[in-house]
C-alpha cells in the first residue's frame, strides 16, 4: 500500500472564520451596519490523519474542537484551505437530532439512517440489529413523542453506529443510556477500537483518551498547540471529575 | 461554479423526507385528504359569492375559474411560506450531518405538489363535463405545470437561502404574498386589466401560468406572445438565480443557524 492510500483525512492550511451576530441576522442590519465583526475559530490548521488511527482532540472550551470536527464531517466548509477525506464519515453529535416527533420509531430509523448516509436497502438489512441494540423493540410502531429522552438517545446512537462508517467522529457525549446500554456501547466501541477504522474523539475525559488513543492533538485559541503521543495529555490540565 | 451531482442517495433521502412531510402534516387523520379539497372549495364559495356582486362583467365559469386559480395559488404560496424558514427550523438536521441541503426545501415543495396534483385530478372530473377541455389542450396545460413548478422551485430556493442570513426575508415574503394574490388574475379574469397597466402583469409570471391553465381547462383566451415571453424570461432568471444562490450559500448554512 503506498503512502497516499493510507491517508484518511488531510487538512491543508485550514482557516475558519465566522461573522459574529449578536442577534438574529437581518437584511436591515446589513444595510444599516456596514462593518462586520469577524471571529477566527481556526487558524491555519495542517493535520493528516491516517487510516486506522485513533485520535484524541483536547483543548479548553471555545478552542475550536467542535469546529474542527464539523469541518472534517463536511457539515460546514472552511473559509480557506482544503480538506480531503477518504471513506464514509459519521459523527455522533446531537444523537436525537433529525428525528421527527410525529413519526413512529421505525419511520424515524429510516429517515435518520438515510440522512446519515445509508441506503434504504442498508437500513432494511440492519433494521433488526439497530432495534435490538437500542433495546426498544416494543416501541417501534408508536410516535416518537412518546419516547423518553434516554430512548431517543439510544435509538440515535444505535442508528449512527450501524451506519458502519470508516471514520467515526465523537464530540463529548459518550455516556448515553443506563448501565446495560453503557456496557453494550463499551463493547461496540471496543470492537471499533480494535478494527482498522479511524476514530476521532474530542473530549475532556483524559482517562478515556489515555486508554484508547495513540495520537493526541491539542488545540488552543484556534491553532494546533501540540501533536504527539499520549505524553501530550500530561501537559493538559485534567478534568476535576472525569478521570 | 460546479453544481453538485445528484446521486441515487439524494433521491432516496428526498423520497423519505417528502413522505415525512406528508405524514407529519396529516398525522394519519381520516379527513387529512378531505381538507386538501375542502380548503380551496370553501375559499371558492366565499369569494365566489361575494365577487359575483362586485364584478361588473361576469367571468365565464366563474366558480371553476376561481377554483383553478386558488389551487395554483395555494400550491405556490404554501410552498413559499413553508420553505423560506425551513433551513432555520431544521437546524438540528443541518448541524447533524452532511447531505445535500437542497433536499430540505425540495421535499416541502414536492409534498405540496403531491397535494396539488391530487386535488387537480379531482377537479378534472367536473371539468370534463363542461366540454371545454380537449386532448390537444394537454400541451398548454403541461407548459403551465412546468412553468409553475420551475418558478416555485426557483423562488423558494432563493428566499430559503437568503432567509438563513437575513431572517427578515420571511416577513417580506409573507407581506409580498398578500399583495401578489391580488396582482394575479385569480378572483378576476385577465380581460379586466386596463391596457395601460398591462406591463405590471408582464412582470408577474403567475399571470401566464394562470392563463395557460384557464385556457386549457375552461377555453379562456390564451396568454399573448408578449405576456408569455416576458413571463418566461422572469421565470428563467428567477430559477437560475435561485439555484445559483442556494448552491453558493448552502455550504455555509451551518455558520448561520
Structure summarized in a few sentences:
The complex is a heterodimer of chains A (243) and B (257). By secondary structure, chain A is α/β, with parallel strands linked by helices. Chain A has helices at 27-32, 65-73, 105-115, 120-134, 149-161, 179-194, 206-212, and strands at 7-20, 37-50, 54-58, 80-85, 89-92, 167-171, 198-202, 215-220, 223-228.
Describe the structure.
- The complex is a heterodimer of chains A (243) and B (257).
- In chain A, α4 crosses α5.
- In chain A, the strands form 2 sheets. Chain A has a 6-stranded mixed β-sheet with strand order 5-6-7-3-8-9, with helices on both faces.
- With 243 residues, chain A is an alpha/beta fold.
- Chain A has 2 domains: 4-87 and 199-235, 3-Layer(aba) Sandwich (Rossmann fold), CATH 3.40.50; 92-165, no CATH class.
- Chain A is built from 7 helices and 9 strands.
- The mean pLDDT of chain B is 90.
Describe the SSE topology.
The complex is a heterodimer of chains A (243) and B (257).
Chain A: E1 7-20, H1 27-32, E2 37-50, E3 54-58, H2 65-73, E4 80-85, E5 89-92, H3 105-115, H4 120-134, H5 149-161, E6 167-171, H6 179-194, E7 198-202, H7 206-212, E8 215-220, E9 223-228
Parallel strand pairs in A: 3-7, 3-8, 5-6, 6-7
Antiparallel strand pairs in A: 1-2, 1-4, 8-9
Chain B: H1 8-26, H2 32-54, H3 62-83, H4 86-89, H5 91-96, H6 103-130, H7 138-165, H8 169-182, H9 198-202, H10 206-218, H11 225-249, H12 253-256
Helix pairs in contact in B: 1-6, 2-3, 3-6, 3-7, 3-8, 3-10, 6-7, 7-10, 7-11
DSSP strand content of chain A: 25-35%
pLDDT averaged residue by residue of chain B? 90
Uncertain segments of chain A are none
Number of strands of chain A: 9
Q: Estimate percent helicity of chain B.
A: over 70%
Distance between the termini of chain B: 24 Å
Described by strand count, sense and barrel closure, the largest sheet of chain A is: 6 strands, mixed
- Provide the number of structural domains of chain B: 1
Question: Which structural class do you get from the secondary structure elements of chain B?
Answer: mainly alpha
Q: Compute the number of helices of chain A.
A: 7
Number of strands of chain B: 0
Cross-sheet strand order for the largest sheet of chain A? 5-6-7-3-8-9
Radius of gyration of chain B: 19 Å
Report the span from N to C terminus of chain A: 38 Å
Shape of chain B: globular
CATH class of the largest domain in chain A: Alpha Beta
Amino acid at each position: 500500500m503506498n503512502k497516499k492510500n493510507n491517508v484518511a483525512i488531510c487538512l491543508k492550511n485550514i482557516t475558519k472564520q465566522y461573522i459574529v451576530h449578536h442577534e438574529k441576522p437581518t437584511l436591515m442590519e446589513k444595510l444599516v451596519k456596514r462593518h462586520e465583526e469577524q471571529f477566527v475559530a481556526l487558524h491555519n490548521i495542517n493535520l493528516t490523519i491516517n487510516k486506522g488511527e485513533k485520535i484524541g482532540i483536547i483543548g479548553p472550551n471555545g478552542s475550536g474542537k467542535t469546529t474542527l470536527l464539523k469541518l472534517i464531517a463536511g457539515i460546514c466548509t472552511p473559509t480557506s484551505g482544503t480538506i480531503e477525506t477518504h471513506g464514509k464519515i459519521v459523527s455522533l453529535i446531537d444523537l436525537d437530532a433529525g428525528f421527527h416527533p410525529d413519526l413512529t420509531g421505525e419511520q424515524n430509523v429510516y429517515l435518520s439512517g438515510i440522512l446519515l448516509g445509508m441506503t434504504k436497502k442498508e437500513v432494511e438489512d440492519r433494521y433488526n440489529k439497530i432495534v435490538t441494540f437500542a433495546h426498544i423493540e416494543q416501541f417501534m410502531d408508536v410516535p416518537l413523542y412518546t419516547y423518553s429522552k434516554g430512548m431517543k438517545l439510544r435509538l440515535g446512537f444505535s442508528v449512527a453506529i450501524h451506519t458502519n462508517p470508516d471514520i467515526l467522529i465523537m464530540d463529548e457525549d459518550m455516556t448515553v443510556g443506563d448501565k446495560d446500554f453503557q456496557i453494550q456501547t463499551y463493547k461496540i466501541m471496543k470492537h471499533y477500537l480494535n478494527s482498522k477504522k479511524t476514530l476521532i474523539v474530542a473530549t475532556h475525559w483524559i482517562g478515556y483518551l489515555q486508554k484508547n488513543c495513540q495520537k493526541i492533538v491539542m488545540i488552543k485559541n484556534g491553532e494546533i498547540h501540540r501533536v504527539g503521543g499520549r505524553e501530550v495529555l500530561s501537559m493538559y490540565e485534567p478534568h476535576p471529575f472525569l478521570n | 461554479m460546479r453544481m453538485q451531482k445528484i446521486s441515487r442517495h439524494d433521491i432516496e433521502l428526498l423520497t423519505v423526507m417528502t413522505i415525512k412531510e406528508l405524514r407529519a402534516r396529516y398525522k394519519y387523520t381520516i379527513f387529512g385528504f378531505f381538507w386538501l379539497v375542502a380548503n380551496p372549495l370553501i375559499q371558492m364559495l366565499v369569494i365566489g359569492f361575494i365577487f359575483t356582486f362586485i364584478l361588473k362583467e361576469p367571468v365565464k365559469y366563474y366558480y371553476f375559474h376561481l377554483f383553478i386559480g386558488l389551487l395554483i395559488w395555494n400550491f405556490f404560496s404554501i410552498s413559499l411560506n413553508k420553505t423560506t424558514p425551513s433551513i432555520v427550523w431544521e437546524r438540528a438536521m443541518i448541524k447533524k450531518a452532511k447531505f445535500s441541503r437542497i433536499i430540505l426545501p425540495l421535499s416541502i415543495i414536492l409534498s405540496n405538489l403531491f397535494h396539488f396534483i391530487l386535488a387537480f385530478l379531482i377537479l378534472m372530473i367536473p371539468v370534463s363535463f363542461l366540454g371545454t377541455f380537449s386532448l390537444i389542450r394537454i400541451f398548454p396545460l403541461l407548459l403551465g405545470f412546468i412553468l409553475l413548478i420551475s418558478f416555485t422551485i426557483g423562488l423558494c430556493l432563493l428566499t430559503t437561502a437568503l432567509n438563513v442570513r437575513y431572517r427578515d426575508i420571511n416577513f417580506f415574503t409573507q407581506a409580498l404574498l398578500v399583495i401578489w394574490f391580488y396582482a394575479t388574475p385569480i378572483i378576476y379574469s385577465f380581460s379586466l386589466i386596463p391596457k395601460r397597466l398591462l406591463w405590471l402583469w408582464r412582470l408577474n409570471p403567475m399571470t401566464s401560468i394562470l392563463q395557460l391553465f384557464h385556457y386549457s381547462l375552461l377555453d379562456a383566451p390564451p396568454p399573448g406572445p408578449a405576456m408569455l415571453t416576458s413571463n418566461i424570461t422572469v421565470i428563467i432568471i428567477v430559477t437560475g438565480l435561485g439555484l445559483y444562490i442556494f448552491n453558493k450559500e448552502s455550504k455555509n448554512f451551518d455558520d448561520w443557524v
